[in-house]
Amino acid sequence: MSADISFKHINKLAIPALIAGVSEPILSLTDAAVVGNISENATESLAAVGIVTTFLSMLIWVLGQTRSAISSIVSQYVGANKLNEITSLPAQAIFIVTSLSILIIIGTYPFARSIFKLYNASNLILEYCIDYYRIRVFGFPFTLFTMAVFGAFRGLQNTFYPMIIALIGAALNIVLDFILVYGIPNYISPMYVNGAAYASIIAQIIMALLSAYFLLTKTPITLKISFPFNKEINHFLLMVLNLFIRTVALNVTLYFASAYATSYGANYIAAYTIAINLWFLGAFIIDGYASAGNILSGKLYGAKQYNLLIQLSNKLIKYGVLLGISTAIIGVILYYPVGRIFTNETEVLQAFYSIFFVILIMQPLCALAFIFDGMFKGLGKMKYLRNVLLCATFLVFLPILFLLDYFNFKLYAIFIALTIWIIARGLPLIIKFRKLFLPLAKNN
């Protein structure tokens, strides 16, 4: 099966994937922005939304790895022209992940108070956390369903429908936030924090329904659960397990970075928050090309077109480095204005400006790491991804952080450690990829 790896085709996959990816956090960001401007107890409401969103994002991040696993398997079978052999797999995978989400609802709903006390929530903030979570959590199965369907679309080399679904969901959530949080005089009473939760759930349900509709009408994949399980189900579960362990390692890195920044004082944690969120923004920008690498590498691997796989990697290296350098240049131009978007506190800005250049230097390195991360997911090499991240976290990031912190480098310790961590993630992937596929390409 032939495959198009032209710049135009890569962008056709990457840009919709980028838009869909950026739309995902808008559901939570909108809640925070709207709730932060309500007329009463705005600070407590905003804090509660932030805490609950952090907890839910962690759960979604862990279980949402099914998207990559489904995408990898489907894309490889598309490449091998054997899609008919795994059309039953997505429905079975969705059944498994939604069943797990229901168990999580049952296991967390009664213990919401204890969970959010662990986040140091108390008094009115704690009560708002409980109220908000006990509504929002019922959207969890719909979110995971949508993410799994997005994985199937990615495997089918289609990022257009996920983009449409994500945009509709984000727009609907924004409209419902204003209506339900603030109310409409004489028609709908203000619901404040609870209104934000209901807005998110409605948007998540609509996105799930749209996902099901487009999957059933635009693809040969069914949502009817059939037994026995597909022959690839064990492979799917093993990939999800490896991605789960990998995600735990990733969260360890972010936890220690945040914990050390907090220990340095309020000005440092504020500066760290600005810097790390700008780093996440850079990650979202490159995620579209990482998704294109994921989608195309799986198809080429399934088709055994190793020459094109090497060509794809070379192109994505070039595009990634150029995109990373462009992002860094924009950051240099906006070096001082960007900090003032977030705060006018002099000491916070001084701390931020002192390390922002490290974030900019990281951008081309992040692009390489994230692109090859996406390609290895497409290839289904989740075990190697797991091992690389475990080594990068526990043998590289943490020792460097501890050492530099000992010498009182403070925020420099965190971001220097993160930079070397990124190199430790990306370099082994590039070396392993070439070691695996250059010999195969020569014999192709």
Descriptive tags:
444 residues; mainly alpha; 82% helix; 0% strand; globular; antiport; MATE_MdtK
Description of the structure:
- It is a single chain.
- The chain is mainly alpha-helical and 444 residues long.
- It contains 16 helices and no strands.
- Helix 13 crosses helix 14.
- The longest helix has 37 residues.
- 47% of the residues are buried.
- Belongs to the multi antimicrobial extrusion (MATE) (TC 2.A.66.1) family.
- GO terms for molecular function: antiporter activity; xenobiotic transmembrane transporter activity.
- Pfam families: MatE (PF01554).
- It is a multi-pass membrane protein.
- It is found in: Cell membrane.
Secondary-structure element order, N to C: HHHHHHHHHHHHHHHH
Mean pLDDT: 87
Radius of gyration, rounded? 22 Å
The tally of strands reads: 0
Low-confidence stretches: none
Characterize the overall form. globular
Q: Which structural class best describes the helix and strand composition?
A: mainly alpha
Measured as a percent range, the helix fraction is: over 70%
Strand content: under 5%
* Number of helical stretches of at least 4 residues: 16
Largest sheet: none
How far apart are the termini?
A: 14 Å
How would you sum up this structure in a few lines?
This protein has 444 residues and is an all-alpha fold.
